[in-house]
Automatic annotation (TrEMBL):
GO molecular-function terms, A-Z: iron ion binding; L-ascorbic acid binding; procollagen-proline 4-dioxygenase activity
Organism, scientific name: Nyssa sinensis
Assigned keywords, A-Z: Dioxygenase, Endoplasmic reticulum, Glycoprotein, Iron, Membrane, Metal-binding, Oxidoreductase, Signal-anchor, Transmembrane, Transmembrane helix
Membrane disposition: Single-pass type II membrane protein
Keyword Iron: yes
Fe2OG dioxygenase domain sequence ranges: 190-313
Protein name per the record: procollagen-proline 4-dioxygenase
Localization (cell): Endoplasmic reticulum membrane
Superkingdom as given in the UniProt entry: Eukaryota
Family (UniProt): Belongs to the P4HA family.
InterPro entries, alphabetized: Oxoglu/Fe-dep_dioxygenase_dom, P4HA-like, Pro_4_hyd_alph, Pro_4_hyd_alph_FE2OG_OXY
Stretches assigned to coiled coil: none
Amino acid sequence: MRTDKELRVGIKDWWTKSKYAYLNQPAIESMDTPKRQTTTYIPNFYFGNGISVWDWNTIAFQPMLGALRILWISSSSGDSLKANDISSIVHKTVGRSDGDDRRDQWVEVISWEPRASIYHNFLSKEECEHLISLSKPHMQKSAVVDSKTGKGIDSRVRTSSGIFLARGRDKIIRNIEKRIADFTFIPVEHGEGLQVLRYEVGQKYDPHFDYFSDEFNTKNGGQRFATVLMYLSDVEEGGETVFPSAKGNHSSVPWWNELSECGKGGLSVKPKMGDALLFWSMKPDATLDPSSLHGACPVIKGDKWSCAKWMRVNEYKV
Ligand SMILES: O=C(O)CCC(=O)C(=O)O
């Protein structure tokens, strides 16, 4: 087990080297390489197998630097896009050959502060329906963590209902958990059980952090450092996941005009059945990332079902 200091030194060293490697990366031929070349590289994520060797360097940077597909973007200006410029959002369809019934999938980087991306059509309709039907009979009023005692308490800041589904509970859940591990490069054993959430009209979760500020909740598995939030339903109006402290021009997202007033209070993601939002609560230097503040806007019309997977820095024992 490495000490905290060793981890930080290792990560910083790795970051310096990999930034250099990244900037000097030769062009990788894409399927439709445009004729005009520019100096702009946009990383896309790699859809690969899970990892067997676990290391902090891997946690923090594999999703960025394991970027096995570099999109070679055509641009007339040739200007480099800034890291936190959300106008750099790109879509790229990536084919899968594992025979499942999900539609086109692609990963869209939506923010660098916090680091966040959407994996479109991550879950199939059948998987969403399975999670809802398993959970529906057992939903309970959601709680929040009391930072003094570490215990779950009822609160007006979180008015949804929810239920935890044990890790590895059935084959469908095991498949989803394996897919999350592949997407995030975080082993299945570092994940808490899935938490299925339901928000009816007017229900919400005010902005909060997923990381803990008490010592009780970090005893098993350490700090939460990444979250995958999956949307199990569309929502007619409202219900966005909003990042009020995200850096960048929030109104440049293509879906800006479809957002509720609450959704316009930050960088927002509109729930769409099957999509998965990944964001990181810790920065590459292993410190907590306050820009990961996020909340669920009140549902205005419809019913919102979502499902959260929180991941810890160490193995989370169940
Ligand atoms: O459902 C959402 O959009 C957000 C949920 C959330 O922030 C949480 O459960 O921590």
